[in-house]
Design goal:
alpha/beta, globular, 5-stranded parallel β-sheet
């Protein structure tokens, strides 16, 4: 299953960009990272179907790493070919995008900078795939 982060704004050369790259290289599943301008620009169409769309949103559900891994594993086992993770600009996502999404996900009740959220998502994708593979990196307590 392709894991695809689609984010508004440019990460460029930054500490957050380096973190994103570090974790992206560790993900053993197919992975893609796409950037859109802060405003305008269209979300690219899925490259594969069926597809699931996850919006990072303050109204979303917080999940443990194990729950997140289980969700990705279930979607993979159901034949989902692409899972898209959308990170909006400073104003987040509109009501229409929220209604269309398969899942709203948040990283807790705190507000995170969008560049940090991107790096954190890449780490969680790597952690989820490691959990599903039985890798010892993740230690649940």
């Amino acid at each position: 299953m392709l894991l695809h982060i689609i984010a508004r704004g440019k990460i460029a050369r930054s500490p957050e960009g380096e973190l994103l790259d570090r974790y992206a290289k560790r993900i053993t599943w197919p992975f893609r990272h796409s950037e859109l301008p802060d405003v305008g620009g269209k979300v690219p169409p899925p490259t594969q179907t069926p597809v699931r769309e996850v919006l990072l949103d303050e109204r979303g559900k917080a999940m443990s790493s194990e729950e997140f891994a289980a969700l990705l594993g279930r979607w993979r086992d159901e034949g989902v070919r692409e899972c898209r993770f959308l990170i909006g600009a400073a104003d987040g996502h509109g009501d229409e995008a929220r209604a269309r999404a398969d899942r709203l996900l948040c990283f807790g009740r705190m507000t995170w900078p969008h560049l940090m959220a991107r790096a954190m998502l890449a780490e969680q994708l790597w952690r989820a795939t490691a959990i599903l593979a039985g890798h010892p990196y993740h230690r649940s307590g």
